[in-house]
Design a protein that fits this description.
33% helix, AB_hydrolase_1, alpha/beta, globular
Length: 346
């Protein structure tokens, strides 16, 4: 069976933009080493949720590419997962403290992704993405950033948009406020320091949130979502050689406070649905969003006109972490143009 292979990229756009941008390119067996491509296949662009990392998609990507291998007439050339610079905590630590200590709006992730996708053939991935058939896929805040890219020039021309549990809602809405309060409380209360990666995994396996994750995705979080604790730099007896989350609680909470989630992103989403096919994927478990919040994004009277709405059963807001292979199946259904299944009111 084919295996997933990757290339890692670091793009340094300073001084034009203060943060370095990291991404990975995925393919089966051996990724293309240059921009040679057939012109017929698709290139998928992935943007992750708050508190996640670019590798969170790997189980989904592997499942998707393996499924596509057996289908005639469809080709995915490669997949790029772009990391929010806030999650690249070690690489951007000084700049994040200096410029973003109290804020992290999704527009910053949009800027970073746009810079990476328009860097040209001499920098970053060294790919001319304007020649590619692009499918944009965003999860939670990653979906917000994906739609906000529409404001930036040159235009990144996505053929299809797929928004997974999009972190988009309406300001002042009662259900939005409840979700924001829950996310904020969880962020400040979540454990974020352990003595080792092994102890972190044992602790997270018993937590109400992480115990629902696919074990392979949890392993990826342990590998890529944690970092050596800051206190490891001190001399004995003051050193602490444990681990902590790459995403700090302060910056994670700051991202939920941004009006860009509930004003700008909703406007951008509505405008994109009127021009391009936008497919929305929800989990059937309403743990963060309510049915009313979900229905806001399908309110045609407000100009929100998704091409389809699909559901992953037995999953909630963190559907990518919980049921990665089911997410791959829904993405493939969109690419193949399969009609969305009819599910009774959830």
């Amino acid at each position: 069976m084919s295996k997933l292979v990757s290339q890692h990229f670091v793009l340094d756009p300073r001084p034009d933009y203060p943060l370095q941008i990291t991404a990975k390119r995925y393919a089966l067996d051996k990724p293309t080493q240059n921009d040679g491509h057939s012109g017929q296949g698709l290139t998928l662009i992935l943007l992750h949720a708050t508190g996640a990392h670019k590798e969170v998609w790997e189980i989904t990507v592997l499942s998707l590419l393996q499924r596509v291998q057996n289908i005639k007439g469809i080709q995915i050339e490669d997949v790029f997962s772009i990391e929010s610079p806030r999650e690249s905590a070690i690489l951007n630590e000084k700049e994040l403290k200096e410029h973003y200590s109290e804020q992290w709006p999704p527009r910053e992730y949009a800027k970073a992704a746009h810079i990476f996708l328009t860097a040209g053939v001499d920098k970053g991935a060294r790919v001319d993405f304007s020649r590619r058939r692009l499918v944009g896929i965003g999860h939670s805040v990653g979906a917000s950033a994906m739609f906000l890219m529409k404001e930036l020039n040159p235009i990144v021309n996505f053929e299809i948009f797929i928004a997974i549990e999009p972190g988009i809602s309406l300001k002042g809405n009662r259900h939005t406020n409840v979700a924001s309060q829950a996310l904020t409380a969880w962020t400040w209360l979540r454990p974020d320091v352990w003595t080792s990666r092994k102890s972190a995994k044992k602790s997270l396996q018993s937590s109400p949130v992480h115990s629902m994750w696919d074990t392979r995705v949890l392993d990826l979080f342990i590998e890529y979502g944690l970092r050596t604790h800051h206190a490891a730099k001190y001399d004995p007896p003051f050193t602490f050689n444990g681990v902590t989350t790459a995403s700090t609680k302060e910056m994670e909470a700051a991202s939920y406070r941004s009006d860009e989630l509930v004003v700008d992103s909703l406007t951008a989403y509505a405008e994109v649905t009127q021009r391009k096919p936008v497919h929305v994927i929800w989990g059937t478990i309403n743990d963060v969003k309510s049915p009313e919040t979900r229905d806001l994004l399908s309110d045609t009277s407000a100009g929100r006109k998704p091409a389809s709405v699909r559901f992953v059963k037995n999953a909630g807001h963190l559907v990518v972490q919980q049921r990665p292979e089911a997410v791959a199946e829904k993405i493939l259904d969109v690419i193949l143009g399969k009609p969305a299944e009819v599910i009774s009111k959830l």
